Amino acid sequence: MAHFRTMPIPLSAEQVVDGGAAVAPLTPIYIQESAARRTVRASVVAALTLGLKIGGNFIIIPLTLKYLGREQYGMWIILQCIATYLTMSEIGVGQTLMNYQNVAFVKGDHTTVNRLLATGFGVCSLIVIPLWLAFTVVLAFFPVSNWLLKDASGHAAFLFSAYLWLAGTLTLIRVPLHVFPSTLLGLREVSLRNVFEFVTAFFMLGGTILTLMLHGKLLALILVLNLGWIALMISCYPLVHSRHETIRFERRFLTPSLMWPLFANSSFFFLYNVGLLFQRLAGNLLAGKLASLGEVPEIFVLITLFRVVGWGMADIGSQTLLPYMITFPTRGRWDRVVFFSKLCTKLTFALALSYTAFVWVYADLGLRLWLGPGMFLGYGPLACLGGAFLIDVLFLSTNNFMRGHNCHRQLAMAMATYALLSLFLGLVGAKWWMPAKPLLGLCAGLLLASVVAQGLPLPWLTYKWLRIGGRKFVDHFLLRPALLVVSAAAVIVLFKAGVNTPLSQRILASLTLTMLLPLVTWFAVLGKDERHWIGEQIDRLKRAGVASLAQNLP
Fold first, then answer.
1. pLDDT tens-digit series, residues 200-226
2. Interval 232-247: pLDDT, tens
3. Coil/strand/helix, residue 28
4. Global pTM?
5. What is the DSSP string of 68-115?
6. Residue ranges of the domains in the chain?
7. Which residues pair with 3 in a beta bridge?
8. How many CB atoms neighbour CB 160 within 10 A?
């Protein structure tokens, strides 16, 4: 027998679906299986995907260095960065499309779902076509290779421009296809969407390894990975249609009147995503201009450790709780929003700080064993990138929750400012502050960008959103995380963990961190109510397993 559930409808999405004001605050939806099972299954697949992506980086980086060499790998990193920036032409249409389709699907209005699907594809296509023409003209008539590379001349410059055009063209072809994976989420096929993400990650890993082992170079990598990705995105449509026969992607469903709402509501998601992308990619892109191609992999490795591996670990907790966080206000439980915001912030920061401390202790030794000599950029850049990572992670959980509650406009502006400051201060640091050590100056600029555009505005935005007392906010969101920083720093200083530290001393430092940080987190950082809740969940997990844990969340 189907389970009956009611879901809240966002007003803006309701207006798009109905063409007028919202007429009912709640609309029933019938679900064939329990929410707990679906949530647990989706979370398990998401965790597997994260593990595959993290593990894949540890395999791909040394393999690519071996088969391509440092200079070719540096060019590949820059090509990937630019291609990723081009995907921003999607401007967040996928997120808006998912929200609107969700509302229409809840109401059983499959015609509107089809209209949104076709119109979303049309909006992305109208953006991509002129962008591709402009991209082609710029590459044909301007010295783009000289803009992006420090030493570009002759044959190398021509090859870079040709590879960039091919990679950019295939990337822009992918942009309108984002509507198909987004529709999986719009129709609440979260598990299937996560399976798609897992298959995509597996293909990217396997395709890269196979291409390199068959001695394929940059051209082969560009073609194999992009064409395979395009095929996987297209395959989402027959998957959607097989699950929901009434969902069709046809030209007759294209609705011009929906284009502007889709475009306008996507703008703030776009600004937020710009900031996230610049966190991961700005350093790599600037390094190609400020240093030689052979030095680009060195900064890429450090950025990957923090912005891909570390960020993925820190992000999974709040993303898992997000479906519950969205429902709390509609049930009059804002106290639960505050509670889980505090809890997630503390646990996420504790995890991120522990990871950063272990990276610090084993950085030079670990990178030498992993990638060979000469791949460690130094403890100065490591300190800057690690510090920037911790500043950004501190409010990662509340950022995700604000986006889930559609309270992200000012947050989006802060992220857009962060993107601009990353470029500007990165250049200033490399060119004027430390011209003799440009990569160290670049990392220092990125750290300052995090301080100015994340460390200053995000506490204020979070405080206004949570609506709690100032003392309580400072205590739980600033002072208690700072206690963890002091504890980790004391251990590192005590054992003098750093360059040329003996292995035995590193092991002692890591063992001390392993024992100390959990104790500080449990007894000094977490509150009594938070420890009580965690204890309850552990008891439930022991008694009834993971499904009971998901069902009994407050």
1. 999 999 999 999 999 999 999 999 999
2. 999 999 999 888 889 9
3. strand
4. 0.77
5. HHHHHHHHHHHHHHHHHHHGGGGTTHHHHHHHHHHHHHHTT-HHHHHH
6. 40-254
7. 31
8. 23
